[in-house]
Give the backbone structure.
Amino acid sequence: MRCIADSAVGAEASPAPESRPAVTLREFRAMDLLHVVAIVAEALHEHYDPALYGSLATEWPRGFLIAADTSDVPAGFLLGVNQVAGEARVLMFAIDRQRRSQGIGTLLMSSFLERCRERGFRRVTLEVRVSNATAIRFYSRYQFSAVDLLRSYYSDGENGYQMARDLR
């Protein structure tokens, strides 16, 4: 794959979390909707029809991971879809602002990639804002590389990178 994001150069081969976060991974439930919508609005600066989450959850339930805290409240989530044969796409991925840098993103991504392997996917793609250097570094640690520049991709007109990685 061709890498067009400078921050992906020289990335670590694989992440190593220091300790396991105090969350439980589970699939999305209808009761999670308000929390997920709030996390998306704050972290991703996007607003989607709430019905979207439920419909996508039914298409691939194991691809919609919730990291729930000890009160069973979502602290973060990863919503993956399968729109192309042999390929998974990270459609949305966000952690509540108060819970960042606690290993939740690492747990979600590692678990998602394992579920993709179990399902036999050969490739995973995602999109990220070009200004989100923290996310680009995070994805690079998982061997994602920027493969395309998406002009005016986001609702506010910001460009994005399409990133991809092969699964082995």
In short: Confidence is low (pLDDT under 50) at residues 1-17. The CA atoms of residues 76 and 95 lie 4 Å apart.
